[in-house]
Specification:
The chain is α+β, with helices and mostly antiparallel strands and 422 residues long. The chain has 12 helices and 11 strands. The strands form 2 sheets. The protein has a 6-stranded antiparallel beta sheet, with helices on both faces. Helix 2 packs antiparallel against helix 4. The longest helix has 64 residues. About 1% of the residues have low confidence.
Amino acid sequence: MTTFGELGRGGATFIMTFVLFLVVLLAVLFSMSVIERAKKRYIIASAFLLVGTFAEYFLLYRSYYRVDTRGIQILIYLIDNTPVMLIIMLTVLVLSLTVMWIFNFIRWDRHNITLISVKEAIDDMEAGIVCSNEDGVPVLVNPNMEELCEYVTGKPLLDANSFWESIRNNEVRTGCEVIDQGRTLLLKIPNGKIFKIDKKRINVDGVNLKEFFATDITGMYKASIELREGNERLERMNDRMRNLNDTITRVTIEKEVLNMKIKVHDNLGQSLLEAKRYLKTGDGNLTEIIGNLKKNINLIDSGSDSQKNDDYALMFKTAKDVGVNIMVQGILPQDQDRKRIISTAMHECITNTIRHAGGDELYIKISEMKGSLIAEFTNNGKAPDKQIRLTGGLDMLRCMVEDYGGVLQVESAPIFKLIIKI
């Protein structure tokens, strides 16, 4: 059987070259396992294979070229007399163990977070990021942040602090614009994109670092502008609606008052005709005629003395004119906004009391709970025969209450109850 000492130059060179390749491969794998902080068994296995393979190459090299064999003559003798097949089998075994270790390491690497996987994830981020020490020297940076820095400042990202200060001081290239210079910087670049740039301090393994983060918020920024403009339009519309609601309420009240005055006018005319007929013919009841005349004259006098600028006075006057008595428990609010809401609610309840409930008394209970005013409206009429839907005037009242930040509730059973919390 051929030994290594008897092997020709070509065969020996091939074996040593292959063993040297395994040494380099194992050195790379050992370095990766240390850098990636792999499990200890992987590090120990790769170290053992590396040392053993390097020892094999060392002895083969010294044996073949007879380089400085002092102190290792016995090992050189053993290598010279080792069958080539045994060396090949040993090398194949090392190769098999190396391949097995590589597959195990790849499988472990795919299922564990490693430094390389973190770096790859950071490089794939759509946002730009750079971590630096206190002096601004970058220790971790991804391509997006490098590209943004060079695009905005015209210089490579060599100092994160300088990059931040350039944007804060609006020292940027023509076409770039710093929209906000608060704790968070908003930067607009010529292609229309908006970047939010944040800075914060982090601590990694006891080392203080600065983290600069650039996020593309173009869509969010445009949406916020559109939302703000929409809110402004909505607020203007709400103002118009409130004015319109006030106008509708007053017109409705004035219409009902006018109808009552027309009725009073007709009654007064009827009373005057009865008085004229009595004076001419003596027909009729004089006491009843005089009573009707006084009643109509009193209604006319009270109408001329009403306080048209006081919403509550107008509601009480309207209720009296249509034959509804309002009884209030508590103190009615006097601030303009809540007064407008309560007076509108009074108007709706007066109308519902007459038209739907067939009652003649409206009860209002005013109370306070946890800083909120609670107004409850009930009447002495019949209960609704079905669930009340918020339509027409009640729906308009609900909008008024919700615009103020309050809540409106309507109960149909066992009696009608309107509850306002503002």
